[in-house]
Design goal:
The complex is a heterodimer of chains A (265) and B (277). By secondary structure, chain A is an alpha+beta fold. In chain A, helix 3 packs across helix 4. In chain A, strand 9 and strand 10 form a beta hairpin. Chain A starts with 7 loop residues before the first strand and ends in a 14-residue tail after the last helix. Chain A contains 9 helices and 12 strands. Chain A is elongated. Chain B is α+β, with helices and mostly antiparallel strands and 277 residues long. Chain B has 2 domains: 131 residues, Aminopeptidase; 117 residues, SCP2 sterol-binding domain (Nonspecific Lipid-transfer Protein, Chain A), CATH 3.30.1050.10. In chain B, the strands form 2 sheets. Chain B has a 5-stranded mixed beta sheet. A 5-stranded mixed beta sheet of chain B has the order 10-9-8-11-12. Classes of the chains: A alpha+beta (265), B alpha+beta (277). Chains A and B meet through helix 2, helix 3, strand 5, strand 6 and strand 7 of A and helix 2, strand 3, strand 4, strand 5 and helix 5 of B.
Amino acid sequence: MQMQSEEYEIRNYQDGDEAETVRLFNETYRKYGGFVPRTVDYWRWCCLERPDVDRKGIFLVFNKRTASLEGYAVVGASGNVWEFCSRDDKEQVASMLLQQTISYLEKAGTSSVFMNAPDDDQVLSKVCSELGFSKTKAEKMFVSSLSLKHLISAMIANKKEELGKRFEEGIAIELSETPFPVENHVSIRIHDGNIEVGEDSPPTIAIRTDFMTLLSILFGLSNPYRALFTLRMKIKPSWKAYTALKFLYSMRINDSWFYPMGDYG
Amino acid sequence: MESTYNCRQLRESDEEEVDRLIASTFPEFLGGKYWNWKYKQNPHFDYSLAVVAEENGEIIGCNQWLLRDFKLTRSLDVKAILGGDIAVKPEHQGKGVGKALMHFLRSSEAVESRKPALIYMFADPNLSKHFHTPIGKYIPAPSKTVSYMKVLKWRKIKENATSLSQRIIDGKTGQKLTNIDLNILFKIRGCPPLPLRIDENGVVVDERVIDSMKKPDITVTADLAALAMIRKREKRKWNLLKVVLMRRLRIGGKLSKMLDLYRNLWVLEELFKGKIA
């Protein structure tokens, strides 16, 4: 492999590199949700053992002075870049990796290159633009729930302290149009800083909505205030509406989601 | 006639029959090689999350789910189910087999005992709208993911041109190319130049003529995203106007040649239909 610079060197994957690639992947994308955190086993399956990936299509860039891994790309003969990582603000690293990717795929006779990236990665956006890539829509990911009790419990566990301090309520959520076999009733009891989901205690607030509206609110795609004003949600007693809306608003997922192509399967 | 099938968990002894089912349902899965990697070799593969539909002892469908660790937010890791591909024998499609497989998994003890916080999948939005959403009430994920694309070769367009020309010669297109003799050069940003020659015999892509095509009759300059917008059937005229006004698509050449092209625009519609690279 030829592409070198004064500061960085690029080479193909070698046995034992995966511990570093996994660490870099998880560090790079930790600010996002929506992906499978890498383990060495998962990375080996997802990248090394993938039918269209050859070891010659896995490139790693190292800092010559510190020998630290600065970025890597896993490129399939199909033209898909299954994983791409470069440390923040490392324009040169991203450029080296993408140039190597293009050169590798041109030699392989592949007709196009596809790569997923977070929309807010300005460095990658600039490098891609310079190298003649066009931005297109990524394949769609869809989410749903098999049990709202499990979903809400997980989301609450993460915000337990904040919710426990701000609320002292028994909230009953009644849902319509739930898919099989999701429950159409979820109770949340917040008392003395403790939160229990599924406790059928007498509610102080009753929320009525449909399954997809609640899901859209929880995933940050829709605003609970809007759901109330458009009559897709009802809250009783009405004088507790503001508390209920504040509660739903605090539950929402605010983080951006990113999924690399490797997560498609 | 109504299908009478039942769903059950996948067994190791089903392997060969499932391989045959996959080969007949998803030929693009490299004769099962890709399927085996995706499911059986997956570190998260679990027999209890794989089901088959059986009719008279014959496997007619299968669906496999994968339990994965998943980042719900930057600080929250949860267990999630990746809803995998559903394979149903072509002659049993449209009879509710896929729905029955999904319902069987959704209500299984194997899923309930693992307490997944969510289920997710990747799918064509159209398939999701008509199949997954009515059954599973899926919503689009809150994604900030974009895709970058670069064309290295116009292989697919060349294949499309060859098959289109053959259909024109065989009179199978239902339309004819009349009074046309055009050299068009597409300059798509980040892609190799795409020279097209359209005459009464059809359309040809020949990259060797680029040098001799010093002065094409029509030059189209655009980016891939603009091209994608006008390739969509819905609102095509509106999208065309939009990309022209936004100067993301420019067309140069003599007016008479442009009118020739406009009269035979269906050729370009056929050529750019489906995958382009």
